[in-house]
Structure formats: C-alpha cells, structure tokens
C-alpha cells in the first residue's frame, strides 16, 4: 500500500510548547539537528580561520577581510541563489551546494596541514566556501514552510536562530581550544577545517533521504533565471512592508559589523588574549544569542517588532562604546552576552518578517535578497571599519560605528516591521478557467495588454479609486510591467483598468500567483461596481509589423 505524502497541510495540529513546537515535526527536527552540528563546525572554522589570519599577517585590513570574504558572496549571489531555488528542485540544489562546501573546506584543511597557506590563499578559499553558503542559504530557509504548518514559522525561525547561536556559543570556544592545543596555529586550524568538512555530511544525508513535496508547483513552463530574478525584484519594488525589513536589516548589520570584524583585534591587542580568549569572547555572544532564542517566543507576545529592534540598537550602541574604552575581560564578556541576545532578537525578528510577508512562489528570491542585504551590510561595513582601524585605531573605528548607529536610529525607526495583520498568502483558487490563447504565435510572445472595463456608480467613485489603486500593487507584484486606470471623458461611470505583461505566459503566471489576500482586494473593487453589468475583460497581444505577407495568418 502506498504511503501518503506528508505536507505541512496534512500534519496534525501541533500544540503550543513555548516555541519548541516545530521540533515535534520529524522532518524539521532532523534538519535542525543536522544543521546544528554543521553550524558548530562553521563557527569553529570561523574562529580558527580568523585566528590563523592573525598569525599570517598583522594587517587589520586583511584580518577584517575575513568577514568580508564570508559575507561578500551573498551580496553578489543572493538574488541569483533565490531565483535558482524558486525555479529548480530545492532538494537537489541543496545537495549540490553542500557537497561544494565540503570540498572547499577539505582543500583548505589539506593546504593548511601541509603549510601551503598564505593570507590570500586563506581569503580565496574562505570566499569559495561562502559562495556555496550564499547559493545554499535561500533554499535552506525557503524549505521551512514545506516542513511545518505556517502558524509555526515564527517559532521555527527562532529555533533556527537558536541552532546557529547554540553553535556560536560552543563552536568558537571549541575552535579556539583546538587551535590552542597545538604548538603551531597551522596544524590546529587545519584540524578544525577537517572537522568542519565532516560536519557537512550529516546535512547531505538528511537531504538525500528527504521526500520533498513543494508547496507551490506551477503548471506552466519554468521561468528562466533572468526572468525569475526580474520578477523577484519587481515583487520587492512594490512591497513596501518588505522594503522596510530589508532597509532595517542593512542599516543594523552595517554598523554592528564593527563588532564582528574587529573583535579579534580587541582580543589580541587590547586584552592580550590568544586563540582561546578570542573563542571565549565570540562564544559569549553565542551564549547571549542562545538565551534570546529561548525567550524570544515570549518577547514577541509582549513587544512589537519595532520595539525589539529599537532596544537591540541601543544595546549595540552601548556595546561598541564599551569595546572602544573598556579593557577588562569580565565586563566585555557580560557586554557581549547582552549583545548576542540583542543580535538574535533583531535577526530572528527581521527574518520572520520576511518569511511571513511573501507568498510561496517568490519566497526563495526574497529570502535571497534579504540575505544579500544582511550579508552586504556585514561585508561593506567590515571593509570600512577595518580600513578605519588600520588608518587610525580599533577604538576609533568602534566609536565611529557607534556614532553612525546612533545617528541613523531615528531615521530607521520610520520604517515599521510587522505592523498590522499578516496577509493570507494561500494561493487563490480561481472559479473560472484561464483564458485560452488562440493565436498561432508562441505563448512567450508579447507584450500582452489586459483591459478590464468596469461600470461604477458615480457615488462610489471615491471608494472605487482607493480600492483599484490598492489593486495596482497586486498587478505589479505578480508580474505586470505597467498598470493604469482611466475614466471615460464622456461616460463618468465607465472606468478602464489596463496592465501589461511581458508575454501570455507571464499573464498566466500572474493569475497563478494571486493569493487569498490579493483576492480580497479584487473583491473590494468588484463590490463597488454595478452588479447588473459585470466587468468585461479583453486580452490583446502586441501586433508586430509583418513585412512578408506570406508569413501572416
């Protein structure tokens, strides 16, 4: 007898368990455990790699570039990664990129063991490793709604943060300890790199055994990568709530990157600590982040997203100032624990806002853009603060970042996150079939103009215009290149909505992409028209000039 497919919709309701509900879903739990082990290896590598760089060079800029090498690939590849994850099978993509990362780290381990490592070789292989991470992460995050019910997504995001931050609490200390165990930094770092390579095997095993059932599967031909990227950017352009989350992520990470990129210098030069000391400082932030993940479920129920982000911003302004002036390890460790708490609170809040503000068809592209924005802030910030530290001092760079965060704070507060009711992004089930394409040209030909003629009572005109302009965002997010609403100069009751798509296929895709929330907006438009005169829709394809009469139909 065939075993029925398991999807989030077929799973039994999961009772509230203080934020740990997603772990009761076997698929998510296996993914979470494998990811946690891999993240421990990643954070061990981050500590060992950065400390290895301090043993290879004394340049603050080269040391800070380790953070840039980790973040820059996402800046360039985030949208491409999201587009590929929305077009191709996410499971196969994830397996490919996990293997890529395993091989990259294995090569780095071998070169380090045999002493063939230089600052630029270390940067290059770190960059290659993070190309894999950049291409992997949008698909990795986008599969969360495929594993659990939608109402548990916020808890799942917090648990994923807990996984990463549990690794951050343990990994740096383990990495620092392993490096310190060896007399020379090279063999210790090489051992860490080797263990990290092995850690990817568990994730690959989970993915190989996963029987994937996608939430959204188009019946139309797959988009091309370039078209998929354009449609993702178009969606973001006409989604103000999403833009607010992206802006807040960039501003926050740009200034806070000073902590991540300069912490090794603080440990080495200001506190006179070795690899183990640096690992403890890094692990202190991880411990705070882990504490945040355990209570964030309760914080979200009491405070708004804007309040959580504002409090975290204040914490980091204070943290940057303390790192600049205070040289006492005990005070810095306590400060970093609080900073780690604030980091996870903000990142989990912003990630959740992105996950819940987009439909399934564009989710990976938007997550890729979010990761691109997030890591772009880290990469660009790390370059700037590293350069400032090299030309002046570490304290000056930290104080400059604190001042920038303070000045930008009131401006960033104007862009609200997760305010109001969360839209219903369930795909809308059309009650009428899609229009048929009867021309002899290819369905990919275009552009196509869709014209909808409404009869609107004069007394409903003000309400209708407000409702139809809300429909503008729906059309443009779902695939329209242009949109307009026009009133007949000789017939005040006649209004004509027109929008243009690149092709007939893009028009059909825009119908597939309509959500329940979009349908509510559409229904509010129709409710203001004359019930005895339903809207008339026509579809026109661009008529290209035909110079050869024999080629015309």
TrEMBL record:
A molecular function (GO) term: transmembrane transporter activity
Stored InterPro entries: MFS_dom, MFS_trans_sf, TM_effector
PROSITE patterns given in the database record: MFS (PS50850)
PANTHER family per record: INTEGRAL MEMBRANE EFFLUX PROTEIN-RELATED, STAPHYLOFERRIN A TRANSPORTER
GO cellular component terms, semicolon-separated: plasma membrane
The keyword Transmembrane appears for this protein: yes
Species assigned in the record: Granulicella arctica
Family annotation (Gene3D superfamilies): MFS general substrate transporter like domains
Name of the protein: MFS family permease
A Pfam family recorded for this sequence: MFS_3
Annotated keywords: Cell membrane, Membrane, Transmembrane, Transmembrane helix, Transport
Subcellular location: Cell membrane
Annotated ranges, domain Major facilitator superfamily (MFS) profile: 1-420
UniProt keyword Phosphoprotein, yes or no: no
Membrane topology type: Multi-pass membrane protein
Xref: SUPFAM superfamilies: MFS general substrate transporter (SSF103473)
Membrane-spanning residues: 61-81, 93-117, 188-208, 246-266, 278-296, 308-326, 332-354, 366-388, 394-412
């Amino acid at each position: 007898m065939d075993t029925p497919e398991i999807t989030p919709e077929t799973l039994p309701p999961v009772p509230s368990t203080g934020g740990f509900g997603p772990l009761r879903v076997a698929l998510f739990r296996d993914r979470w455990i494998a990811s946690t082990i891999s993240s421990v290896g990643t954070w061990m590598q981050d500590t060992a790699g950065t400390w290895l760089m301090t043993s290879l060079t004394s340049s603050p800029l080269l040391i800070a570039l380790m953070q840039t090498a980790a973040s820059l690939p996402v800046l360039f590849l985030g949208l491409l990664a999201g587009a590929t994850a929305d077009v191709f099978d996410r499971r196969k993509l994830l397996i490919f990129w996990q293997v890529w990362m395993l091989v990259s780290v294995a090569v780095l381990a071998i070169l380090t063991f045999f002493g063939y490592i230089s600052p630029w070789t270390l940067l290059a292989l770190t960059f290659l490793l993070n190309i894999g991470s950049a291409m992997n992460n949008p698909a990795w995050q986008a599969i969360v709604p495929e594993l659990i019910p939608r109402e548990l997504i916020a808890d799942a995001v917090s648990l994923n943060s807990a996984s990463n931050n549990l690794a951050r609490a343990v990994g740096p200390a383990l990495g620092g300890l392993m490096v310190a165990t060896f007399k020379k930094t090279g063999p210790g770092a090489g051992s860490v790199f080797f263990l990290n390579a092995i850690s990817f095997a568990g994730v690959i095993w989970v993915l190989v055994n996963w029987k994937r059932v996608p939430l959204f599967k188009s019946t139309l031909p797959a988009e091309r990568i370039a078209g998929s990227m354009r449609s993702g950017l178009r969606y973001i352009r006409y989604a103000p709530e999403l833009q607010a989350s992206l802006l807040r992520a960039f501003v926050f990470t740009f200034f806070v990157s000073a902590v991540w990129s300069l912490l090794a210098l603080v440990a080495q030069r200001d506190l006179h600590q070795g690899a183990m000391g640096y690992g403890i400082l890094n692990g202190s932030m991880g411990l705070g982040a882990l504490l945040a993940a355990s209570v964030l479920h309760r914080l979200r129920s009491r405070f708004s997203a804007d309040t959580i982000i504002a409090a975290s911003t204040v914490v980091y302004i204070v943290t940057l100032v303390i790192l600049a002036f205070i040289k006492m390890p005990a005070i810095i460790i306590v400060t970093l624990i609080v900073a780690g708490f604030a980091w996870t609170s903000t990142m989990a809040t912003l990630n959740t806002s992105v996950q819940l503000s987009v439909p399934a068809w564009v989710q990976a592209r938007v997550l890729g853009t979010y990761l691109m924005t997030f890591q772009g802030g880290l990469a660009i910030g790390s370059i700037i603060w590293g350069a400032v530290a090299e030309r002046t001092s570490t304290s000056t760079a930290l104080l400059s970042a604190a001042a920038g965060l303070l000045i930008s704070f009131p401006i960033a507060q104007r862009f609200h996150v997760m305010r109001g009711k969360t839209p219903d992004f369930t795909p809308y089930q059309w009650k009428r079939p899609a229009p048929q394409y009867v021309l002899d040209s290819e369905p990919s030909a275009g552009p196509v103009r869709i014209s909808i003629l409404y009869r609107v009572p004069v007394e409903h005109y003000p309400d209708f215009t407000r409702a139809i302009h809300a429909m503008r965002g729906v059309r443009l997010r779902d695939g329209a290149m242009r949109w307009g609403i026009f009133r007949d100069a000789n017939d005040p009751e006649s209004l004509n909505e027109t929008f243009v798509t690149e092709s007939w296929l893009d028009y059909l895709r825009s119908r597939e992409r309509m959500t329940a929330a979009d349908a509510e907006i559409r229904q509010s438009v129709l409710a203001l028209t004359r019930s005895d005169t339903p809207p008339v829709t026509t579809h026109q394809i661009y008529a290209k000039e035909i110079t050869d009469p024999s080629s015309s139909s």
